[in-house]
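notes to self, project folder thing:

trying the whole complex as one job this time. last attempt i did each chain seperately and stitching them together was a nightmare. four parts in total, labels are on each line so i dont mix them up again. if this works i'll redo the older ones the same way
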Amino acid sequence: MGPSIANMTDHAALPQAVDPLDFLATDSLLSETEVMLRDTVRQFVRNRILPEVGEWFDQGIFPKEMAKEFGSLGLLGMHLEGYGCAGTSATAYGLACTELEAGDSGARSFVSVQGSLAMFPIHAFGSEDQKQQWLPGMAAGELIGCFGLTEPDSGSDPSSMRTNARKDASGDWILNGAKMWITNGSIADVAVVWATTDPEGPDKGAVRGFLVPTDVAGFSAPLIHRKVSLRASVTSELILQDVRLPADAVLPEVSGMRGPFSCLNEARFGISFGSVGAARACYEAALDYSLNRVQFNQPIAGFQLTQKKLVDMMVKVQHAMLLAIHLGRMKDAGTLATPQISFGKMDNVRTALEVAREARSILGANGITTEYPVIRHMNNLESVYTYEGTNEIHTLILGNAITGIAAFS
Amino acid sequence: MGPSIANMTDHAALPQAVDPLDFLATDSLLSETEVMLRDTVRQFVRNRILPEVGEWFDQGIFPKEMAKEFGSLGLLGMHLEGYGCAGTSATAYGLACTELEAGDSGARSFVSVQGSLAMFPIHAFGSEDQKQQWLPGMAAGELIGCFGLTEPDSGSDPSSMRTNARKDASGDWILNGAKMWITNGSIADVAVVWATTDPEGPDKGAVRGFLVPTDVAGFSAPLIHRKVSLRASVTSELILQDVRLPADAVLPEVSGMRGPFSCLNEARFGISFGSVGAARACYEAALDYSLNRVQFNQPIAGFQLTQKKLVDMMVKVQHAMLLAIHLGRMKDAGTLATPQISFGKMDNVRTALEVAREARSILGANGITTEYPVIRHMNNLESVYTYEGTNEIHTLILGNAITGIAAFS
Amino acid sequence: MGPSIANMTDHAALPQAVDPLDFLATDSLLSETEVMLRDTVRQFVRNRILPEVGEWFDQGIFPKEMAKEFGSLGLLGMHLEGYGCAGTSATAYGLACTELEAGDSGARSFVSVQGSLAMFPIHAFGSEDQKQQWLPGMAAGELIGCFGLTEPDSGSDPSSMRTNARKDASGDWILNGAKMWITNGSIADVAVVWATTDPEGPDKGAVRGFLVPTDVAGFSAPLIHRKVSLRASVTSELILQDVRLPADAVLPEVSGMRGPFSCLNEARFGISFGSVGAARACYEAALDYSLNRVQFNQPIAGFQLTQKKLVDMMVKVQHAMLLAIHLGRMKDAGTLATPQISFGKMDNVRTALEVAREARSILGANGITTEYPVIRHMNNLESVYTYEGTNEIHTLILGNAITGIAAFS
Amino acid sequence: MGPSIANMTDHAALPQAVDPLDFLATDSLLSETEVMLRDTVRQFVRNRILPEVGEWFDQGIFPKEMAKEFGSLGLLGMHLEGYGCAGTSATAYGLACTELEAGDSGARSFVSVQGSLAMFPIHAFGSEDQKQQWLPGMAAGELIGCFGLTEPDSGSDPSSMRTNARKDASGDWILNGAKMWITNGSIADVAVVWATTDPEGPDKGAVRGFLVPTDVAGFSAPLIHRKVSLRASVTSELILQDVRLPADAVLPEVSGMRGPFSCLNEARFGISFGSVGAARACYEAALDYSLNRVQFNQPIAGFQLTQKKLVDMMVKVQHAMLLAIHLGRMKDAGTLATPQISFGKMDNVRTALEVAREARSILGANGITTEYPVIRHMNNLESVYTYEGTNEIHTLILGNAITGIAAFS
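result (full assembly):
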């Protein structure tokens, strides 16, 4: 640096220093309580997840015990009211997702599935009995839930699902079908399964949600193997062969695709925040590495090409955080609209994936192992990019919202 | 669109509608006063600039009369206190920049140069006499100022400037040198000229700022011709040949590069907001065009490829607006740091240029004329991308801030 | 550079030096004759176009006299056989396009329109009388042709054209309609106009081509003003109001959209080569500028950020040239398929636009005037990107070719 | 597709059909022999690698037996003359690399390391005895070689290596140091190790190459674990603790960094071709998947957004292939320069990585497992992107070649 540039930062009038890890001082947008809660989760991630998650990823496991630790911390169904749930703001829940996913997308996925996809529909659409039966144990992490919507041939177009529920003469429901890519499936105590009903029946073919205890006859949930992404997370098929459920196994308060889509909205909101965490972790790892890796007699952070990458990553992380907080505030104000959630899910995950890939390149050969967190995040984000609505589906949801023209098919 | 997707937006729980022109409802972040002020400027741009600016651009002119209209509206030195200035918040000033640049980057440049580059240093570093002499007339648009820092061979590295000021025996200053790419140069009444002093003199070679009345002997400001960008703006050289100024022509309260850099910070802040306006105007033009242009029997807004472009543009505009407002709030809180301003200038201008290019492509052949605003904005933004610190310089300022390593040279 | 890297290029075994302007030695793929021809055109561009084209662009003119100079050089209908045409290979014609567009896309457009869009259909689909009447004068540049396909509401979907031709009782054709964005329209002696015929008539509504002398009653060709792109080129509307033509004004040997599409193929082939020229000119201007522009005491070409831009541009230019030559060889071998031409048009123009934009940024403030060629090329390429099939249309043509699924609408 | 576009491809004059898997008919650039050889390797990959490589990747193994199969096929040291090597052209060797890497980058890496990094230096710089001792067995795959240049703290700047060789009184060499990221290290019979010599000794500190039998005392080669990339490949550390070698263990014919850099050139050439194979495999997998995956009642290949991705991938693969063949022809003509090899390595690997990522997104959830080849290739290419010169280093090599200014540090 020549002396001329030294002057460039010699202004009396303005503060010069910024926090490299919070460049735009987004912390100033949070309340003290939010910061405290965020820091608690961050500390938990540092103590309980980061030291082990590389191993979990390598071995392809997620320790079921973590559920209770999440529960103790109040992370499960965190923004729901009552039934043992913490009842925080949506923003606070989002910030917890950020910290969890700074650990691993698998950990955040666990919490999202438990809270937003399994507990939320019971809380929003369940009977009082259903709530009493399931929610307290789920909030404590003693019971695990999963969410069965996607099928092998029905992903972006979920209403093409084939899983069906028919009532037999006894009034029981009989479910048949298969669900795919189900987080927590093999360790779940209860599965929220969405199925189409008999077109001739009282529900006229509408999709309904069912609470399926996983020990019921005809239900199985084999693990999906050979994953390179979300390896520290349980992913399963759900197979339902003449699964018989009592009449009251259905979620009484919702009918139609509004049910699962409401859940997806909840989960997508959490992903908007969560993905920032993965991005931030990659940026921090790359910044740290580049300051310590010396080539040509200087830290590689001093090379313009590397510095530009670091800046690009930082800029993206900051944009993502600003966006997430904005969405959080709107959700808490009750003004957040569905397409705005799609904006957050689509854009923050895309951004996080870009950051992870850039970070990977900065780490050089060291970037290909799980000794460093980056390639793990990079692979995890491939799932996050795809699940809960692919980038394309959200693009078309946004396109629909701005043009008034649906272009899905 | 199949019926399945129709359902995708059939949630009872959440609002579904968004404003295509304010997708994330960023207006909700503004006060009523700010919205009112913003709308006033927007209306002014609609009435006085948009109907004519295409012609101005074609002919390569900027009508000097506009200065007084800007003055009447209170736009000149808008966020300064006293001396006939409006004394608004920084955020309000930023929002005005957004609206002006939604008209044309030339109009915003006029206001930036007058307020942030010419009036600001007089206000911040001038003597009471200097303030009284110049500021009220400049606030009213009756006097025009310009800012002479850049030189033909000294752009990104301004402290390599050759323009110099020496004191002669009489105590007068004698200025020699040339400045380049000076907005408003040929129509200015006063030029704020930065020059190096005699290394052997009392200022020990430090850069000082001088108020140069443009009718002084030895001063000339020829127009720069053949521009394709900022054609509705006056761009000039400043030539100083033995320009003699009285001893009190110097700005007394600043010495060194801190002077011009403080001004640049002010202007860059305004650009962070302004560029959002250019981007928004391009997005709106493209959205409007795509909804009305029919090919293959449907509005092109209905094609996935076009819809993705529209979404990308909208996303970028919204990010840019969120960022600008965040920076505005920090500036008003007195917490905004120099590198954060660089973030805003760098990123929002880059983004605006991307949006303009994308919009250009949507307009097809119609996009190549000034009948539509897009190609005008696209070309204007090339100047905005370059001036007040190139993308590279700001990248390295940010890089320095996060790594602690200066990599400018 | 440290001594270690010095060694990095100290190999005995391999040549080390490359030509920065032909990095991959693509010249080695050309025959001596081709190089000679190419150099002749290059010299002509240097002598006759480059010294003046900035002025032409500024003033928005293309001197009609250039037509004869192109004719003398053999550039008009260059790859056609007989009738005064040069009869070169397609590759040779392509190389000439590269050199012309290194001058200005307007010059190349003139030659493309004259040779590929006006002379080609007469040559391919005309009667012997038509050929004799028009081709020799057109080859010499004494007569100018234009091509009327696009209409105000019919661009990407040309078969939706409204211009129509009906036979009246006398056997004459009566043409009505309007064409838009017609290069050379206002200076043409003859317009090749495509029109739909009477659905009830002998042509059953098929599109036919007509040779319309521009001095015929009812024909006018007003200039299109306010262009920012292709300003050194004549662009016009064609207005046909009850234009009466003799029965033999129709091109006898073609019926249907095959006619205009054959012409487009010819022109698109030329654009594949031409756009490389514009890209190369921008790269060379940026390389030259960056080697001479000193900031922070060194040529900016020595900064990593600038060097990366230069490398990216060079890489793109070389890829584009390799591709163009490959397409040329296939065309000469008679194996070039329509989708391969779309590949060349789409990809090389996109690439050229990217190179031009990158080059613009390297030139800093100097890059915004026509004193340097870059911003002129950048704006020209916006037209080239759009005309002869937009990027989107070609994407979908390629998509159709690889998937077997047409997704145009 | 409307009928209008149907016409768009109804030209009599030109062929319409293209091969989706060889869009530009690059096969026409190959000789019959080359195609035959290429097809042989392709068949081998289909039969012996593709059925098992997903498993190898999952388990993190590369079966040593493959070495002999490669040898039988003539792939080891394929373009070297004599000593049991096949002596093919460089282009033929390149095409074999393409096919191998269409299987897995690990397989190609094995062949590159054996042939270009271990056999090549023995062939080029070894004594007749050394050649006789090692090359025939290595060509047959009975002996495995590895290449020790990179060290934990010495990657992009290899001449900063710390591994050293000193002569003791007996005339023996004593080697000490550690090498990192060494493909085949743990299964090698011989390691080509580069080490700095005594600055005071006869070699004056120059780097020399040593043939180290891996069963020598003081040598060990522990596996590197926890890789997510190149899992079907052996990657190791080499540890040399007072390894004693006879005086004739040194490669006699080369001194200085020219030795290892010559080898890198050979390997980088192979990577230029190899990476095209990985890209092609990903494109083909995505094309196939998109034609078979039905959502919204149609194959996703019919959606514009997916079709654009497919087109982008295809375009990149074709460019990469054109480039590789061009480089191959130059290498066979003896005209290929070092910076041109850097062009090929840098650009084709970058491109392949982009293609792999795009393909991953098309496969949706199915894209995250090794049931499909894409995520395996995507992760492998992260190593290929980094090794044999990172993208940054090659960018700066090219930048140096076009500007004459080294900007490595």
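what i see at first glance: The first helix of chain B runs from residue 3 to 8.
need to look closer tmrw
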